[in-house]
């Protein structure tokens, strides 16, 4: 059985390194995870007015997340936090149908700097702790891929052995966590 993972791409750039990391994960773990990238580019800015009449893009995005077994956030860092468009996507998920509630979730992030989006990921964990979001986040297992541009081959595949070995461990841990979460939900 493969776990259906919707990977929310926190970048809106067509050349996104975070997307390249997700695509590398998609092929490396295809036997156990069915990873599908979910893009946030088309989401309109959240407002109370828009909430009452959301666009098809918003409805499709929320449905995509709702229909998944699990969620992966791939997070760039913009000015020591998450990109605004990712915050906007999260704001949409915090209203109406609460599509992230209890959803098994894990987080990766990449940046060209040394710290691999650590500050953004810390902010993301804090944001997601809001009760209207509240996914079941894999604890620890923090994936900070610094100097990401030096860790890909010319085709954009993640090739850095140490990063891949660490991701292997995180994915194993996530699958164990996912199974525990599912068993606990079934027992309730
Ligand atoms: C507006 C802006 C702000 C940024 N701020 C940071 C930052 O605070 N820390 C950091 O490590 N990188 C920062 N960066 C660099 C991004 O991490 C880098 O561009 C990364 O490749 C973005 O991820 P992506 O390739 O998936 O879009 C910033 C980039 C932009 C465009």
TrEMBL record:
Entry-linked InterPro entries: Flavoprotein-like_sf (IPR029039), FMN_Rdtase-like_dom (IPR005025), NAD(P)H-dep_reductase (IPR050712)
Protein name listed in UniProt: NADPH-dependent FMN reductase
Coiled-coil regions listed in the entry: none
Keyword Oxidoreductase set for record: yes
Organism: Bhargavaea changchunensis
Residue span, NADPH-dependent FMN reductase-like domain: 4-148
EC assignment: 1.-.-.-
Keywords: Oxidoreductase
């Amino acid at each position: 059985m493969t776990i259906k993972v919707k990977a929310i791409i926190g970048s809106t750039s067509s050349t996104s390194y975070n997307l390249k990391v997700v695509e590398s994960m998609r092929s490396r773990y295809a036997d156990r995870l069915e990873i599908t990238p979910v893009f946030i580019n088309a989401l309109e800015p959240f407002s109370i007015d828009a909430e009452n009449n959301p666009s098809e893009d918003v409805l499709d995005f929320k449905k995509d997340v709702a229909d998944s077994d699990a969620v992966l956030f791939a997070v760039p860092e913009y000015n020591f936090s998450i990109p605004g468009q990712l915050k906007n996507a999260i704001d949409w998920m915090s209203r109406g149908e609460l599509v992230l509630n209890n959803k098994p979730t894990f987080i990766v992030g990449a940046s060209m700097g040394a710290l691999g989006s650590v500050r953004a990921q810390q902010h993301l964990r804090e944001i997601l702790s809001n009760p209207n979001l509240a996914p079941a986040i894999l604890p620890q297992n923090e994936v900070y891929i610094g100097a990401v541009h030096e860790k890909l081959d010319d085709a954009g595949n993640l090739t850095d052995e140490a990063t891949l070995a660490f991701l292997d461990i995180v994915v194993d841990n996530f699958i164990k966590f996912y199974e525990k979460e599912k068993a606990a939900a079934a027992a309730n």
